[in-house]
Structure formats: structure tokens, C-alpha cells
Amino acid sequence: MKDISKKYQYIDTSLVYFTALLTLIMMVLSSTDIILRWLLDSPITGTYEAMQFMMGGVAFLAFAFVQLKRSHISVSVISEKYTGRTAIVVDILSLLLMLLISAVWAWAGAANALEAWKYGDVTVGLVELPLGPAKMVVPLGCGVLCLRFIVQLIEQVALLIKESKK
After folding, report:
1. Would the CA dihedral through 20, 21, 26, 32 be positive or negative?
2. Looking at the whole model, is its pTM more than 0.70?
3. Alpha helix locations (H) across the chain?
4. What are the sequence ranges of the domains in the chain?
5. What span, in angstroms and rounded, lies between the C-alpha atoms of 57 and 59?
6. Average pLDDT estimate for 65-74
7. How far apart are CA 13 and CA 31, in angstroms?
8. What is the pLDDT of residues 110-164, one digit of tens each?
9. Cα(82)–Cα(89) distance, rounded to whole angstroms?
10. How many CB atoms lie within 10 A of CB 36?
């Protein structure tokens, strides 16, 4: 199981690096736009639209990496009360709930993105960028997060079985 988790970790890490690259591009683009607006009174056309376009990737593509590190905000009021097998069962139930919610987000996001592509939705502004590709990062990010939850569920079930044999 550890091999699967290690191999899958590569996907999570690659997506978080891509997210960092998007963030860098956004910073350079917005800084350049501000400098050009201030110095030459000539901003970069479409900066606002490009920012909207990239923001979804920054928000959703890093979710799985954050879950890999178990760094999501969590309410530990319940889980702190238990130890051993009970704590593992509580973690499994929590992972199942988060998997269900993420799957719903992925499904709804995919439906929304496909509709945007079907009708040719574009950004509103000086530059019209197609919204279909930007909206696909929601189901992509949530889908990868679902896979991360599945890997962690398998690990926790294996741990529960191991604990039960003691």
C-alpha cells in the first residue's frame, strides 16, 4: 500500500508545483500591469480576465496536496477523545464524509464546466477568454482530492485490520 501512496504522492506534488507556478505568473502579471499603468498609463489588456481564469487553479489544484500533509482545518473535538481502534474508525468515517462531499463537488463542477463548454461561456471584460477550461479545474482538483481520500481510506482500513489482530 505504501508504494501506491508514494506513487500517487507524485500527482499531488506535481499539482502543487503547478499551482505555485500559476501563483508566480499571477504575481508577475499583476505587478507588471500595475507598473505599466503607473509609469506609462498603459495597463496590460486582459489582466483582470487572466487573473479570474487562473484563480480556480490556484484554489482547487492544491487541495489534494494539503490533504496529503493532513493540513486541512479540522475540528478535533471528537477525534481527540478517542485512541486506538476507535480513533481509526472516527478517521475512516471522517474520510468517507469528506470523500462524499468532494465527489459531489467534482460531479457538480464537471456538469458546470461541460455546460460552459457547450454554450461557449466566456469571461466578461475587454478580452473574452473561454470559461470551459478554467471551470474544469474544479472537477479536476476535487477528483484528485477524492483519489487522495481513497488512498488514505485504504491505509486507515489496513491500519484498523492490523490493530484488530493485536
Report:
1. positive
2. yes
3. 2-40, 47-60, 63-68, 84-119, 131-135, 137-164
4. 2-164
5. 5
6. 81
7. 27
8. 999 999 999 999 888 788 888 898 899 999 999 999 999 999 999 999 999 988 8
9. 10
10. 14
